[in-house]
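Intended use. Records like the one below are meant for learning the mapping from a protein sequence to its folded structure. Do not use them to infer anything beyond what is encoded.
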Amino acid sequence: MMKIKNCSRTFNFLKYKLLYLSLMVIVPIQLIAQIQQDIFPDKKGQELLSLLVGQYKTNTVLSYDEARDALWGAVAKHNHDSLRCVYTGFAVYISPASAHPRTDAYNKGINCEHTWPQSLGAEGNAKSDMHHIFPTREDVNNARGNLPFADIPDDKTVYWYRLGNKLSVIPTVKIDEYSEIDNGNWFEPREDHKGNVARAMIYFYTMYKSQSDGVFFSKQLQTFYQWHYQDPVDDEERWRNNFIASKQEGKYNPFILDSTLIRRAYFPQYKGYQASVNDENSSVVSFLKGRNLIIRSKEALFEKAEIFDINGHLIDSKPVLQEDNNLEINLSGIRPQVLIVRLSGNERLYYNKILLTQ
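Structure written out for the chain above:
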């Protein structure tokens, strides 16, 4: 499920046409509503990553039991003695007098989600690093396992999770509050946790790269970049970051503190996160002509167009004609599916999502 101005729910009802949908409205990075610090503002790429590890990687963590007790207890007290699953909103009561909140939570169906899976590198200090662990409903945690994260098309979702429920049909109400899983390839968190997932995963890989699965990370990185801006840091995430830092040598997750770090560290070729919509004032206009997707740019913004399937596999790649900044992509040979169109070059990035139907 990928949010596109509340239009994505119409996909299953549209047939015999090619539907173009813009992924996002224009979002200049300076307008992202995040209270932030400026961390190494003139650095980018590997130099920035090295500085972040040097300043923000903790050398001391609590034991795994202590970490869960401390975090679960603090989160519950902060939320009126309620501990909630980050994937479903399912909540349990934790007494403020509890000596072992982790045990109380476990007995009520909440256990610990390692956002970065233990089987793929979350061991040693990383296992207890609270910046990537969250309370989750036990069965949902087990279902996710070590699956990578992605936006899953509704018609590919096998199960939907919300509160204490598990559905096998598309929900008709409050669909944004559901997490999803397909047939064992991908897991999609609910909308209000996607940015948190992105920042936790990028934090983990940055700090523990030597013990992390790089292939696992790289196939999700582009999704994390999108989620980071689609679901900005909120007060709850800032509070959590502050609490964890107080228990881990004052070391924060820096990607929560400065919203530009992910772009500067992992996408240094881009000046900012920006996508466009189809209107007469937009720098990029896309429209359909028969079975062709036409892309026209008013400026020489892009050098290459790529088409991916929903799993991130490259289907086609074409250069953008710089003479007139126009591009025509024939879609006749592509089977019906959700496609992602990415334009890149000249330090700009643009995404479209389209649905190809019969």
